[in-house]
Design a protein that fits this description.
Blueprint (H helix, E strand, L loop, with lengths): L8 E2 L2 E2 L36 H10 L2 H15 L3 E8 L5 E6 L5 H9 L2 H15 L1 E8 L6 E7 L4 E3 L10 E4 L18 E4 L7 H11 L3 E3 L2 E2 L15 H5 L1 H18 L5 E5 L1 H8 L2 H4 L2 H19 L13 E3 L5 E3 L1 E5 L10 H15 L20 H14 L1 H18 L6 E4 L1 E4 L9 E4 L1
Helix pairs in contact: 2-4, 2-11, 4-13, 7-11
Amino acid sequence: MTFVEVQGKTNGKQNVAMVKSVNGSETSHTTSKPNSKAGKKYIEWGDSDKFPTTLAKAVRKNGSASSAMRVKERTHYGNGLTLYKNSKSETGKKVVEFVPIDEEPVIEAFLKKIRYKLFLQETIKDLEWFNVAFPEFVLSVDRKSIASVRRQKTAWCRYAAPNNKGFVDKIYVSSKFGNVSNIDIEDTEYVSEIPLINPYLTKEEIIEYCIEKNIDRFTIPFGYPVSDESFYPEADWHSILNSGWLEVANSVPEYKLNIFKNQVSIKYIIEIDERYFEKLYYQEWEKYDLEKKLSIRKKLIEAITDELSGNTNSGKSISSIMFADAKDQQISAVKITPIDDKFKDGSYLPEAEAANSEVLFAMGVDPSVIGAGIPGGKLGAGSGSDKRVAFNIMQALKTPDRDVSLSVLEFIQDFNNWNPKIKFAYENTEITTLDKNPTSTQNGI
């Protein structure tokens, strides 16, 4: 969870465990030059500071990506928070003992106070979308314990530009980030400022630092391990935006919608030889004025159209006269030509199939879990075994991610001196077969 060196001291010396980045030379969208714009007091996130907004809008336009994100979040949360203790059996094997929350009244009171079910799901959402969360810890009056914690939306958070010592010591929070240009950081009505604390400081060092700086609330970035990012992390699945696959997937339905809106739906071309009317009405035809001739033509077209349209006319035949042309060859007075529908074969669906496959592969979600084979393609939704195995694998792979979201509670546990034997976990629901369990589910961690 290391992104940028933040303010703090350890044993009287500057803590340099976090990577300091001031040149911003990387090309990743998660890195910006702090001094790239005159007067900028915060580090922008992506081009024009709009990466979180751009990502969210693109994902929400795509059904596969939106469903995959929902699955990732809910698989991470599982059946919710549970407490447990580790112990040994008489044979020396590890035994997991579940602990009801009401058996730990201090922990229970705190969890209820912060509405922990909502708080954890909010933290998970930030981690799954952006690989980092910014919980805001509120200290007690004496600054010796954490009184509360609340979520600050990651998409609304920005690191402040490094101070004169080269350290980032705060973040700015505003709903305007990514939506409004030229934000005035000094506008306290729309922008709040939260001190940023080094996560490697001990409890005593944090208390000392907060008392010294008169800090009553602070944030620590909790996130998944990064590779070469300096400030804002980049999730692996963000590749769907960088590669263009998400744009391809979103372009196909938009393209088809425009076709449906703008195309002229014509099924037949009906051609009527002028001599048809001359032979049918003989000398009277020449006496008719233009308005009457047009009316006769229109009625004939409508009659033919009625015969060709509708389910009740399926299989019917229409009759027409024939006459000899100048070469004494018989020709039809009425010619009806069907127009081929160029879009009836599902054009561009293979492209949508490939794009949606790439989206789901990058997000690590098996298509069968969201109820589809390959979105946009011809494959089925998979068997029950496919779904069961894919879901169980997803939950198994979520362990490292869960360790990060639960580390927020572990930090509070250490800070507030809660029972150290208590462990936090998310309860799994493992889907089984009916022959093994009548309810087809079993719980565990």
